[in-house]
Protein 1
Amino acid sequence: MERGWLRIANPVYDYLNTHGPCTRQQLVEGLGLSMPTLLEQLKPLWEKNLVESVKRLASTGGRPAETIGCNRNAKYAVGLDVTLYHLGGVVVDLSGSVIKHQYTNLPFSNTTSYFQQAAELVRGLLADGRVPLEKVLGVGVSVPGKLSKDGRTLEFSPVLDFQNGKAQDFGAFLPLPYRLCNDARASGWAEYWNGGHPSGDLVYLSLNRMVDGAVFRQGELVEGQNNRSGSFGHMILTPGGKRCKVCGMRGCMNAYCSIQVLADSAGGRLDNFFINLERGNLKHQEIWRKYVDHLAQGISNLRMAFDCDVMLGGHLGTYLDDHLEELRKAVSWRDPFGEKGEYLKISSYKLGGAAVGAALSYVRDFLANLES
């Protein structure tokens, strides 16, 4: 699958990654190289096991032509998705395909026991996938909250009630590189990798216990001057409205569009809310109507500000496929330019997108620095 936003330093690997397995002659013609130059550039890729012989084409009378492709199993990366009540993990190969995944009921706690269990989850995933440690690029840890500029410290996370957490807290029990990733940004990267945004521009709105987001321009994450770009949860929807439990301001998007607004009316469970909604429960229908009204206003504001597709994800995204047209209608009548809301999308990952995106941060860096 072509991913024009993905920067791969090595032109031969880039060509194979984009076009699939090729013969040497096809590589020569496609890259505009001489055969000796191509063979010289292929040599280090063979030595590092990054390319492999895929198949031989049918003979037309002479020696059958060999095709060469990327070896997706040369390296792997691990992603962890840390939430208040669950810990998820994935292993991805160099193509971004998930080869192993697991989600477990493990409430977060800033304790040695928790970080040991996280390490055990990683060990189990690697063992199940028969992935040796030396092939692992690193472990990306998706967390809800504000990270330091270097991505090594979780400065604060109201959801986890955790401050000044370090990447090495997770890496203390397993000899692998670790890094922290904001969950909304990680989820957005996973969507990009999945090939859904040929324009390169996207606003990702993460609807979890805390509303967050990410902005992408031409396939690049917009971080902002203070690494706060995408903090949509603190946009004011209703001046003087409900108090935000995160920042203390009144009228924030968090106060109206957090999934807690829905879950709290159904015993704290989002799935129960949507079950009751589907059954025609009048109380939950009214709560949903108000929720959609506020969410549509927030979406419309983002469309006006960024003029690109808006994707809804997070935990709520799991339940929105059947409500997409309803949401598009809600945003369309707010649109001064007569748009019908087709710019509104639902995330393709229903589970584990943040973990996948966190893992892909290592794959991205590896391919971007792959020597010619």
Protein 2
Amino acid sequence: MNKSKKLLALGLTAAFAFAACGSDDEASPATDAPAATDAPAATDPPAETDPPASGGGSICEVTDVGGVDDKGFNQIAFEGAERAAADFGLTADVLESASDADYATNIQSFIEKGCDLIVTVGFLLGDATAEAAGNNPDQQFAIIDFGYEEPIPNVLTLNFDTAQPSFLAGYLAAGMTETGKVATYGGINIPPVTVFMDGFVNGVAYYNEVKGTTVEALGWDGTDGTFAGNFENLDDGKNIASSFADEGADIIFPVAGPVGLGSSAFATETGGIRIIGVDNDLYEANPADAAVYLTSVLKKIDEAVYAAADQVVVNGEGGGSYLGTLENNGVGLSPYHDQDGDVPAELKAEIEELAAAIIAGDISVTG
């Protein structure tokens, strides 16, 4: 069932933001997307100008399955849309996709409504977005976690090099495990999921190389691994975490949207398991299980959506590409929060040094 949420607010400020990133009708990893050009950092504050008039346009989000309250990428995207609506005097709407059968229908509903910018959330909406954009060349789109081999003039692509912070998370996990085993798993075996998993296992391998250790990463071998087969079922997350715990893993990195919340609940119930969150800072977003989070790998979708609204709706510039990286603060690690005191000062310093080396190009996160 679709539900719609709308926000209408007077604009407070206007921004001068960045452009966005790309791949093809056939799925390709988000990290293959071209780097953005002449783009300020994702967290650059908007320039202060006269506030726009109320009702100056609309930004409309079509979610992937999981819903707008998934504590993950659908929710983060709409938070960016809501903030843009408040700051720029726009309206923000969302339609939720219960299954892939809803993608085209929801997009068409927003086309008929006359939305200035339709944001489609997720790799699985790539084909539906391309078809709608081709059939409606005057309609502006932005898509998260997908790109096109041949850029589409009216589609702004928003991608993120999540292998970078996931590499840091893998190194951190290898430095924190007490059993010598850590684990990762995905929702569905698609590039925007496996890019996190690649970074994580490569970070573990790099720790072993530097330290002469033999920490084992369960759940992904670079080609195949453990997947829930969905992004919704919390029981699957509990069962997968239980299986990893039985194998001896004491730190688990789910890349599975709400499925991962099941693993967090398992960690809370059983104790002795640390969880690394994904997309959002889950210590803040999932307070019921806050104590189990060592850190979260952040994909700052809200910043990208905010900038897309500025670029397309406010400034009238469609198309282009954006790639979030450690360098432009489009991705990163969250604070250690309650577990800060457990992380050795030396390991914290190494994580900071690794981030700087990745930005400088001195370390490859692809192994």
Protein 3
Amino acid sequence: MKDYLYKDNCDKFPIGMAYVPWQQFDGIYDNLEKAYDAGTVFPELDKPFKGRRCCS
């Protein structure tokens, strides 16, 4: 098995950056069944996937 954790390879990759917007706490779902379906109790984190498949 090849060891990909060599420190020699780190110079070949750029440094990654992340953007994490500030989130406001607006409360939690009153309906726990809806929260379970959404996967979160926080409505502001309920972001359904609306993408499409990359293959036809």
